[in-house]
From TrEMBL:
Name of the protein in question: Xyloglucan endotransglucosylase/hydrolase
Catalytic residues (positions): E108, E112
Lineage: Eukaryota, Viridiplantae, Streptophyta, Embryophyta, Tracheophyta
Organism: Vanilla planifolia (Vanilla)
Post-translational changes noted in the entry: Contains at least one intrachain disulfide bond essential for its enzymatic activity.
UniProt keyword annotations, A-Z: Apoplast, Cell wall, Cell wall biogenesis/degradation, Disulfide bond, Glycosidase, Hydrolase, Secreted, Signal, Transferase
Length: 342
C-alpha cells in the first residue's frame, strides 16, 4: 500500500514535471514524443521522466537532436540552460531548417547562443533565411537581461504565414513581417526543429579570437519544456502537403502568441533598446540599402552609428558559411540514415 502510493506519487510527479512549463498555454511534450538524436548520441542524456534532455560537447564530440517530423508554421519552444564558466567558442543552437531537403534554396530560423571568456556574458543571435538567401544573412545580436547559465529560460520561435516572432521568456524580441518586397527571403517551406551544441571556435567568440578550451569540458546545455505546436508533416510524405495544414494554420494564427499587441510591441522595443548589440538593419557597410523587413527606429540607428560596427563582431560571411556547410554535411548524413531506416 505504502509502496503503491509512493509509486503513484512518483508517477504523478514525473507527469507534472513534463507539463509544468505551460508557456503561452501550450503543454510541453516529452523528448521522445517529438525529437530523436541527430549526432553525438552518447552525449545526449534524457532525464528519467523524458521531459528534458542534456546535450553535451566534449573533446570527442558535440551532440544534437532533431524533430521526428517536419512542421509547417507554428510555435517552437524550449527552456534552455546554457553551460557555465569558461565557454569561449561554444555554440548552442535552437533552430528550424530544411537544409537537408532543399540544399540550394533552404529556409531557416535561428536562435544561436555564443559562449564567452571568463567574466563575459553569453550572446544570443537570431537569424532568418528564406529560399537559400545565405548571402543575405539577417543577423541580430543581443545581450540577455539575466544569467542564462544560472537557470533555464524559454526561447521560442513563432512562424506563421505572415509573421515571425522570436520570444525570450514570452517577451517578443524580434518581429519579421512578411511583405511582397521580401519575396522568397521569407521562409515558406516545412522545416525540422534542431538543437545542437558544437565547437564554433573559428567564429563564435570575438570573431574567432577566443577558442574552445577543453580543459573546461564537458560543456552541458539543458533543454526542457519542449513545445512543438504546428502542422506536423511526415518527412516521407511528398511535399508540398500544405493543404492538410489549413485547420492548424487557423488555430496558430488565432493564438495569443501570434498576435502582436501594442503592449507587446512596446515590450519588444524596450528589450531592443536595452539589449540589442547588432542588427543588419543598421549595418550600412554590409547592406547599404536596408532590407524591406527592417523597421528602422531612429533612436536605435543613432546608437549604432555612435558605437559603430565593431562592437558587435559580426561574423565574416565567408567564415560563417564554411562553418555552416560543415554543420550541414553532418545533418545530411543523419537525415539520409533516418530516411533509410524508416
Ligand atoms: C500564405 O501567404 C501567401 C503569400 O502572401 C499566400 O499566397 C498563401 O495563400 C498563404 N497561405 C495560407 C495557407 O494562408
Ligand atoms: C527561390 O530561388 C530560386 C533560385 O534559387 C528562384 O528560381 C525562385 O524563384 C525563388 N523563389 C521565390 C519564391 O523567390
Amino acid at each position: 500500500m505504502a509502496m503503491a502510493s509512493i509509486l503513484t506519487a512518483a508517477i504523478l510527479a514525473a507527469a507534472a514535471s513534463i507539463t509544468v512549463g505551460v508557456a503561452f498555454n501550450v503543454p510541453a511534450i516529452s523528448f521522445d514524443d517529438g525529437y530523436t538524436p541527430l549526432f553525438g548520441e552518447r552525449n545526449i542524456v534524457r532525464s528519467p521522466d523524458g521531459g528534458s534532455v542534456k546535450i553535451i560537447l566534449d573533446k570527442a564530440s558535440g551532440s544534437g537532436f532533431i524533430s521526428t517530423d517536419l512542421y509547417y508554421h507554428g510555435l517552437f519552444s524550449a527552456s534552455i540552460k546554457l553551460p557555465s564558466d569558461y565557454t569561449a567558442g561554444v555554440v548552442v543552437a535552437f533552430y528550424m531548417s530544411n537544409g537537408d531537403i532543399f540544399e540550394k534554396n533552404h529556409d531557416e530560423l535561428d536562435f544561436e547562443f555564443l559562449g564567452n571568456i571568463w567574466g563575459k556574458e553569453w550572446r544570443v543571435q537570431t537569424n532568418v533565411y528564406g529560399n537559400g538567401s545565405t548571402n543575405r544573412g539577417r543577423e541580430e545580436r543581443y545581450r540577455l537581461p539575466f544569467d542564462p547559465t544560472a537557470e533555464s529560460h524559454r526561447y521560442s520561435i513563432l512562424w506563421t504565414n505572415t509573421t515571425i516572432i522570436f520570444y525570450i521568456d514570452e517577451i517578443p524580441i524580434r518581429e519579421v513581417e512578411r511583405s511582397d518586397a521580401m519575396g522568397g527571403d521569407y521562409p515558406s517551406k516545412p522545416m525540422s526543429i534542431y538543437a545542437t551544441i558544437w565547437d564554433g571556435s573559428n567564429w563564435a567568440t570575438s570573431g574567432g579570437k577566443h577558442k574552445i578550451d577543453y580543459k573546461y569540458a564537458p560543456f552541458v546545455s539543458d533543454f526542457s519544456d519542449l513545445i512543438l505546436k504546428g502542422c506536423r508533416l511526415d518527412p516521407i510524405q511528398q511535399l508540398p502537403a500544405m493543404e492538410q495544414c489549413r485547420e492548424e494554420e487557423g488555430r496558430t494564427a488565432a493564438a495569443d502568441y501570434s498576435v502582436m499587441t501594442p503592449e507587446k510591441r512596446k515590450e519588444m522595443q524596450r528589450f531592443r533598446r536595452e539589449y540589442m548589440i547588432y542588427s543588419i538593419c543598421y549595418d550600412e557597410l554590409r547592406y547599404p540599402v536596408a532590407f524591406p523587413d527592417c523597421k528602422v527606429v531612429e533612436e536605435e540607428k543613432e546608437r549604432f552609428k555612435k558605437s559603430g560596427h565593431v562592437m558587435a563582431h559580426p561574423v565574416p560571411a565567408g567564415r560563417r558559411q564554411r562553418q555552416r556547410r560543415r554543420g550541414r554535411a553532418q545533418r545530411k548524413g543523419s537525415y539520409s540514415s533516418r530516411v533509410a531506416n524508416a
